[in-house]
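Exercise: predict the fold of this chain.
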Amino acid sequence: MWSDAELAWRLRDEAAAPWLVAARGGVHYDAAVTGMVAEIVRAAGLRATVAWTGGTPLVEAVMDPAQPDLLVVELTSDQLSRSTSLRAESAVVVSGGDPALARAYEGVRVACVYNVADPGTERFVEEAEVTEGARAVGLTLETPAVSMLGVVDDILVDRAFIPERRTSAAELATLADLGEEGAEPGVVLAALAAAALTRAHGLSQAAVRDGLRAWGSVDLPGDE
C-alpha cells in the first residue's frame, strides 16, 4: 500500500522541483519548519509550494503544470512508513521518537539534518542509506560545533555551510527576527531546521534572515 507521498513521488516529472522534507513528529513546533522554509525560499526570489496533510495535497502539487523552484514537504510517520521510493534533496527530523520518521533520510542527496539534543535523530542519520556525498548537519540551541547550526547569545549561526566553518560561524538571524515567540526553544529549533534545509540548497544568509523575519512578522506558516 502506497502513501500519498509515495504516489506523488512516482507521478512527478523527472525534472520536477527538488523536495525539502520536514518529518512531522510529536513536537509542537515541527509544523513551523515548512512555513519558515517557504518564506526563506521566497526571500531568495524563488517560488515555493508547501505540501502537507492539512494544506496543498502532494499529488496536486506535483501535477501542477506551474511547477515551483522548490517543493517544501511536511511528512508524517504514517506517510513515511508507506513510502519506499521518495528521495529528498535534504530532510530534517527534529524528534526521533518514532522509528518511521527515519525514512525521511533514505536516499537524501545533500543534507540530513538532525537534532543534537535528541540522540534518536542522529542514530537515524547514521543508519540511513543516503546518496554518496550527502552530509550530516546538526542543530543545537547552544554554541554549535563544526557541521552544525546553533545559537550564540541571541544570534542564530551557521558552522556547516561556510568555507571557514572550522574557525568561525556566520550570522543568519536573531531571536528578535522570529517575532513574539522567538525566545521559545521550539521556535528557535524550527528556525535552525529551516535555515539548514535552505542553506543546503545554496540560499544566502540574507535570504534566511529576511525569510525568518517575514515568518516572524505574521507568525504563521506560509503557502501559495
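Check your answer against the key: Residues 30 and 134 are 23 Å apart (CA to CA).
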